[in-house]
Amino acid sequence: MSTGIPLPIADREICSTDPGNCNRLVASLLEQTGRGRSRWRFLWSESTGSQIVEFAVALPLLLVMVIGILDFGNAFNLKQKLTNVTRDAARVGAGQATSDLTNGSPPSILALRDVVANYLQNAKVNNCSLNTAAAAPAGAPWKWSFTSACPQGGNLVLTVNRGNVFVTTVTSGGFPVKVISTEVTISYPYVWQFNRVITLLVPSATYPGTSLITTDAVIENES
Fold it and tell me: Rounded to two decimals, what is the model's pTM?
């Protein structure tokens, strides 16, 4: 009787001398082999099932961590770009003449608007069509603001104050010296993705969908 399974040497001798007893040995061996295979199949299926359960439990946490890292990284990157553009705009504005600041829409102020709009576009940030926004007086002499609606929601607000005054630690005649400067402020709406996945871990959690990222820069006027 052939089983395809090698028999021990002692069993081979029995099969050569007693064919009847050999059949019983082969049947017993086949039964033991079948049980072993069934046992391994059961253990493998049980291990696979536990791995699937563990993955299902860990997946929400992993997803929240990955989205959170990417989202906060993008927000920080946007903050850096806005900081750079406010510095550039304040530097350009500080070198502009102030002779046109009594006009309704001073060309020097519109030039700063265009500097910001072009910088954002080159930095791969949606400028929300800022270059088409009109200048509006912001309640103080030499101060204007530009407001533009963003497609992702919220408004981009650019404020330029050519008459910003700050007090230095230097004194003259016993009084602190005041410096007239250019201040540029940008508020940009950032849309979070984190609020879409945090509920996977905490269903009752609330997280703002949009936050305003604000930066400003101040540079002393040259004229």
Answer: 0.71
pLDDT digits (tens, 9 = 90+) for 97-112: 888 988 888 999 999 9
- Could you say which DSSP state residue 223 is in? -
Task: State the DSSP code for 206.
Answer: -
Phi, psi of 168 (to 5 degrees): -95, 175
Dist. CA 182–CA 112, nearest whole Å: 11
CA dihedral sign of residues 204, 212, 148, 122: negative
More confident residue, 50 or 17: 50
Higher model confidence: residue 71 or residue 40? Answer: 71
Give start and end residues of each alpha helix (H) in 95-155: 107-122
Give yes or no for residue 183 having a pLDDT over 60: yes
Of 116, 137, 135, which Cα lies nearest the Cα of 186?
A: 116
Backbone angles phi, psi at 146, to 5 degrees: -125, 130
Per-residue CA distances from 198 to 53, 70, 91, 158, 212 (Å): 21, 14, 41, 32, 20
CA distance 84 to 200: 36
Report the relative pairing of strands 175-191 and 155-172 from DSSP bridges. Answer: antiparallel
User: pLDDT at position 194, please?
Assistant: 82
pLDDT band at 19 (very low <50, low <70, confident <90, very high): low
Contact at 8 Å (CB) between 162 and 143?
A: yes
Maximum Cα–Cα distance across the chain:
127
Which phi and psi angles does 212 have, rounded to 5°?
-90, 125
Asked whether the beta carbons of 199 and 67 are under 8 A apart, the reply is no
